[in-house]
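User: What would this chain look like folded?
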Amino acid sequence: MRALLVGVGGVGEAIAVMAQERPWVERLVLADFNLPRALEVQKRLGDAGRFPAESIDASDQQQIETIAARHGVDLIMNAVDPVFNEAIFDAAFEVGSTYMDMAMTLSSPHPESPYTRTGVKLGDYQFERAEKWEKKGLLAMVGFGVEPGMADVFARYASDALFDEIDEVGVRDGGDLVIEGYRFAPSFSIWTTIEECLNPPVIWERDRGWFTTEPFSEPEVFEFPDGIGRVEVVNVEHEEVLLVPRWIDARRVTFKYGLGNEFIEVLKTLHLLGLDSKEKVKVKGVEVAPRDVVAACLPDPARLGDKMHGKTCAGTWVTGKKDGRLREVYLYQVADNAECMRRWGCQAVVAQTAFSPLIAWDLLEHGQWKGKGVLGPEAFDPLPFMEKMQAYGFPYGIRDSRAAAAGAR
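Assistant: Here's the prediction, encoded as structure tokens.
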């Protein structure tokens, strides 16, 4: 496989580090707007021939096409913030390459009823072009990180093997990570965090379709495994809710994230001050987006690993019936920061996000996953993916209760 990696931030670096162990990755082009950053990762990998570095503007479709063609890539991996998705997605189509991302094209709130009705939904731009991709015989794989990605694979497995009838598919994410020396330091891209946390969350119900609610709504306490314990989680806009219903029959689909009250209050303050805006403003003759300023003022999540302690858990909670009996299952993956730093030199959140695209590459390269059009993780056989998780250093767990007692949550 020859791949173009667009974006060599925290997750991009982790993808490259993990790809180094896979001999079937013949060439991985490290492309970033910040060329010194790409060269830094290249130096770490120690093989400039296998990991060439390129300067790239992810908003410039023609430039992406030129670099992809020059290196003869089979796949373009999008590892940048989703504001650049359209250009990268369209570039892959034009050069005839497989496309993969970890977050779909952005949403826009409903202009009149943002907290009850959807406007432009996550991934609409991509799914509207699915027929073109299918007719051309090309494959675009959207939402192949950990959430979305692994969580969607788990949903498909639950549908195939664990349930006859599904009531709810609920992705639940939480952890006990602590970052020393900072009162506020997101463990993932603050740009993406603002986007998904302050947009109206989307919920799917069979009788209503997709609809929205207020940010941070419907708090519940969820019991996370491996000693993490009880964490309050709230509704957040996320791709799984837009992906799961396209392939899996469920009465309801939700996504809830354990943010913590302090984190939520910071996000609310940023919104109150307009500092979450993507629109550029003029400051002393220079145009800059307030959100970009916030991101520049915060520490780089990729460099927080040695100050971070604890675990993060990503997983899919499913309720329903099997053989006429109520059942509740939580399929999950827990990443320990100390172990991730020891093995890959990358902090837990970015490492956990990076392994899923590598497994997907593996399954594509060896013919276990095939397809054409615009497809989410639910469109593929989940077993080959889950069978490889242990070998990639991210084993999954299953907590199963056929009683499905609501109080167990």
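The two ends are 43 Å apart (CA to CA). If you want, I can go into more detail on any region.
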